[in-house]
Amino acid sequence: MKMKVFVAALAATVALGAVPALADLTMPSLSYRTGPYAPNGIPFADGYADYWTLLNERDGGIEGVKVKNIECETAYNTQQGVECYESTKGEGSLAYQPLSTGITYQLIPKATADGIPIHSMGYGRTSAANGTVFPNVFNFPGTYWDAASIIIKYAMEQEGGSLKGKKVALVYHNSAYGKEPIRTLEKLAEKHGYSLMLLPVDHPGQEQKATWLQVRREKPDYVIMWGWGVMNQVAIKEAASIRYPMDHFIGGWWSGAETDVLPAGDVADGYKSINFHSVGNDFPIYSDLQKYVYDAGKAAGDGSNAGTVLYNRGMAAAMWAAEAARTAMKIHGTKDLTPPMMRDGYEALNVDEARLNELGLPGFTVPVKVTCANHGGPGLGLIQQWDAKAKSWKIVSDFIGADREVVDELIVEDSMAYAKENNITPRECK
Amino acid sequence: MLYRETGDFKVSYRDDQQTFPIIQDRWLFWGMLAVAFLVIPFIIDDYWEKSIVLPFLVFSLAAIGLNILTGYCGLLSLGTGGFMAVGAYASYKLMTAFPELNIVIVILLSGGVTAAVGMFFGLPSLRIKGFYLAVATLAAQFFLVWLFNKVPWFYNYSATGQITAPERSIFGFAVTGPEATPAATYLFCLAFVTVLALVAKNLIRGRIGRSWMSIRDMDIAAEIIGVPPMRTKLSAFAVSSFYIGIAGALYFTVWFGAAEPTEAFGINQSFLVLFMVIIGGLGSMLGSFLGAAFMVLLPIVLKNIMVGGFDVLPVLAKHVEITLVGSLIIFFLIVEPHGLARLWSIAKEKMRLWPFPH
Fold first, then answer.
1. What is the mean pLDDT of chain A?
2. What is the ipTM for the molecules in this complex?
3. Between chain A and chain B, how many beta carbons pairs sit less than 8 Å apart?
C-alpha cells in the first residue's frame, strides 16, 4: 500500500510530462529567477534568452534552423538543477550552461557519460580547461584561477610591482564555487610574498558582520571577493560600513554586476571587479535587439536588464553557443545537430575580432580560439570600477593575462588527479 | 464487502499476528512489491530515476529513521541533515580508503558509523526533552556540517571541498558513478528500502518498539514498569541514526554521486524530513512513505502540470509551486492533524463497512 500514492503520482506525471520538440536546435537554460541568487540569475537568463530571440526573429535561427530555448528553474539548487538536466536532456538539448559551479560539478560526469557538452563559462571546475581529461566540458574564456591571478597581477601593478609583505584577504562563498580560487591564491602568495587571509561566508550570505569585523581588525591591504547572489550586496554594504577603501576591494567576475553595487548606494563608489567582456549597450547589436526583440514585445523577463553586466554576459554565453552550433554545422555538413556534433563545434570554435565585428559586437569580449587540449580559452580579464554617481561601470585597465606558469601547472596537477581518481586515460591531442 | 476480516479465519498465533492481517492488504503489498521489483526496472529511465524514484526511496528511508525517533520514541530531532552527512562522508571515506570493499558493506558500515554518532548526540536526551532536545540536536546539525566543511581529511583534501563517489558495482552492474543504469541504481535502493522497512516494522511491533512507545507516552510510568530510559532512548537514537545514515549514504553515492556539505545536508534537509514525518503521520510506517511521496513528488508533479501541461513561465510556476506546496501542507494538517496515514486508515474503515455505512 505504500506504493499506491507513488504509482498514482507516477501515472499523473507520465500523462503530463512529455512535450514534443518544436524547434530543431534545443538550447536549455538552467536559470534561477527565484531565491537568494535571483538578483544575479535574472539578468543573465534574460540576456541569454534575448539573444536566441534575436537570432530567431532576425535571421530565422542559426543557418535557418530555429532555436528553441527551454528555461528550467533551478533556484541555484543542485538537486533541482539535476532534475532540470534530466527533464530537458530528453528533448534533444545540445549543450548545458548551468550557471552554477555546484550544478556543474554534479553534471560533469553525467553529461560526459551522456555525450552532451557543458559550457561553464568562467565558472565550474577550473581544471576542466584541460581538454585531454575533460573532452565534454568547456570553460572558456577564462577560469577562476585565471581570474584570481589577474586580480593579484592588477593589485601588484597598483602597488608599484610588488605585494611583498602585504596582506590579502579572500571573502568567499563557503561552497565549491568560493573555494575554487584558494589554491591559486596560496600558490601566488608563495611566489609574491603576500600573506593570505581566508574569510568564508556561509550560504546565502546575508550574515557577514563577523567577517567584516575581522577585516576591520586585520586591516588587509586588499580584499578579494568570490561571492554570488545577495552575498555580494551585503559584502559591499558591510565593507562600506567599516569604511574599507573601496578601490582596494576587488570582486571576481561573478561579484561585479549592477545588482551587487546599487543597493549600497553612493558608498559603493570605487568598488572594483574583474570582467571578461565590455559593459553597457553601446554596440551595434543593441539596435537590432531594440528593433526585433524589445519593440516587438518579445524581451525575456521584465526587459529592464538590457545593457547590464550580467545581461551582456548571458548574451556572450548564447553568442558562443550559437557560433559553436554554426561551426558544428560546417564540420559535419548537416543542419540536424546532435550533442556530440555540438561538442565538436565547441572544440573548433574560433570567434576572433573580425567575427565579433560581423556579429555587431566589436570589441565586446576577448577573441576565443578553443583547441582540443585547451578548453579554458585565452584567460584574459579586465578590471572595471563602479561609478556610483553615474550608476555605471567604467573599465579601468586593459585586458590582463593570467600568470600562465602558475595556473597551467595547477590545472595539469588537478585534472590529472581527477583522471586518476576516475580511471580516465587522457586522450591524445594533435 | 470486498475488504474485511470476516471469513478470513486464523488458526494459529502466527497467522493472527502477521504484519498484514487482512488478506486484501497482503495481496496489495505483494502486488506492489512485484510491480516495484519486476515491472518498474524495465520501464524506468534517467528522469524517473534521478528526479522521482530515487528521491522518494532515499527520503522514505530518512523519514522512517526520523519517525522511529520522533514518532515512536517521542524525541524531537532537527539533526537529520547532519546525520545524513555523517552517512555520506562515512561512505565516501570508506569507499576511497578501501576500494575493494563491497558497496553494500560500505553502506551498512556508514549506517553503523552514523548510529554511533547519533548515540553520542543522543546523550543529552537523557536529561532534556521536547523543544530543548530539538535545540540540542540542532547543534549537532550545525556542528556536523561545519566539521565536514572545515576539516580537509573528510573530503580527502580536494580543492573545493566537494566529495565525489567513485564507481562501484554489484554482480558486474555499476550502481554508483555516471555509468550506472537507472534500473541498477533503482533496484539497489529499493532492496535497501524494502529490507530495512520490514526490519523497522518488526522492530516496532516487538519488545524494543513497545519500550520506545512507552517512553514516548509517559517516561516516568515506563521507568516504573521496568523500561530502562537510558537504553531505550539511546537505542532509539542508534536505530534512527542508522536509517538516516544509510539514507545519507544512498543520497550521496547512488542518487547524486557528488555532494557539498552546506547545500546537500543543510538545515533545510532536516526540516524537509521532519515535515515528511509530520505530514505523513507520526508513529506510522506507512506515513513515512506517504510523507516522503508528498514532499518529493508534489513539487515535481505541480511543475510538470504547470510548465509541461499549461506552458506557464518556469519562474511563475516556481512561485505558484512554493505557495501551493505551503498551502497544501497547511490544508492537510487542518483537515487531518494525524497525517496522511490517518486518512488512509479512515478510508480502510469505510471500505470495511461498505456498502452499508452507519
1. 90
2. 0.86
3. 145
